[in-house]
Amino acid sequence: MRICRFNNDSLGLVIGDEIADVTSVLASAGTVPAWPLPSGDWLVKNLDNLREPIMEAAKSAPRVALSDVTLLSPVANPTKVIAAPVNYLAHQSEVNADSNVNFGTQVKTIESAGLFLKANSSLVGVSAGVRLRNDDRRHDHEGELVVVIGKTGRDIPEANALDYVAGYSVGLDMTARGPEERSLRKSIDTYSVVGPWLTTPEEVADPDNLELLLTVNGEQRQKTNTNRMIFNTRKLIAYASSFYTLYPGDIIFTGTPDGVSRVYPGDEMYVEIESVGSMQVKVLG
Ligand code: MN
After folding, report:
1. So where are the chain's domains?
2. In angstroms, what is the span from residue 52 Cα to ligand 1's centroid?
3. Three-class SS of residue 27?
4. In the prediction, which pLDDT does 237 show?
5. Ligand 1 mean position to 155 CA, how many Å?
6. At the topology level of CATH, where does 81-284 sit?
7. Is this structure's pTM higher than 0.90?
8. For the segment 2-48, what is each residue's pLDDT rounded down to a tens digit?
9. Which of 57, 58, 172, 202 has the fewest CB atoms found within 10 Å of its own CB?
């Protein structure tokens, strides 16, 4: 099942290059909680219960072309956006070899650097594009597999970690290079792109064996397989949950492979992850 959020918070089931508008199931799914909202994203939390109504509604739902809609982040209200700093050895090597990327700091892998958080306000869907901060910095793409948490968990054992996954998305962890903390440089508005939809786990045989490709203006920049991650998906979830309670809708950027490079206004980024989806994202000035 591929679930998207589009236009004015409509709910869609993606079928080929069309969307079945299944927004009507939200009204029948029970009362959406009022303020103060409980932690977590209401839709993601209820996704298992909504699966049958969505499939049923899709049979007669109005269809619209994917290319005609505004795609929003598939998760509306994560409690946090977690990210893995250096989770591919080849990316560590390229960063430590380039002073325009490392700014005098030899970066360590996730094993000693841990995790960081990106501001929720940086989160956008595909259609928003990435608006570069107006400065002289180098701003880079980082294509990444994104894991969306489906249920509340704390100290989740690695062996069960995938039971806590609502689905997977394609992510861009956009980054301004510089000497400051990652949370500052990676939390600029629009610097966390998640999309184009949420692909539920039955469509992804193994999140730790997916081909990832990123191009800029049609030119290949990043290509890897998620089997090269230092902390695989299970370990990332277990590790994150040993520090933070994970809530439905929480987002984990799993780290980027080598091939990061600068983007400029007018560029078109394309990211594709096997079994999950692909997205075209504009760079805006
Ligand atoms: Mn990253």
Report:
1. 2-70, 81-284
2. 35
3. helix
4. 98
5. 24
6. Fumarylacetoacetate hydrolase; domain 2 (3.90.850)
7. yes
8. 999 999 999 999 999 999 999 999 887 666 778 888 899 999 999 99
9. 202
Gap from CA of 47 to ligand 1 centroid (Å): 27
pLDDT in the model for residue 138: 96
Distance between CA 284 and CA 128 in Å, rounded? 9
How far is the C-alpha of 282 from the C-alpha of 132, rounded, in Å? 10
Measure the CA–CA gap between 201 and 79, rounded to whole angstroms: 21
What is the Å distance from ligand 1's center to 141 Cα? 9
| pLDDT recorded at residue 215 | 98
- pLDDT, position 34: 80
pLDDT on residue 28: 75
CA quadruple 47, 1, 8, 120: dihedral positive or negative?
positive
Distance 98 CA to ligand 1 centre (A): 16
CA of 74 to the centre of ligand 1 (A): 19
Give the distance (Å) from ligand 1 centre to CA of residue 161: 21
Count CB-CB contacts under 10 A for residue 39.
Answer: 15
37 Cα–ligand 1 center, Å: 30
**Separation of 173 CA from ligand 1 center, angstroms?**
5
Q: What is the pLDDT of residue 144?
A: 98
Task: Tell me which residues of the chain have a pLDDT lower than 70.
Answer: 29-31
Question: Ligand 1 mean position to 84 CA, how many Å?
Answer: 6
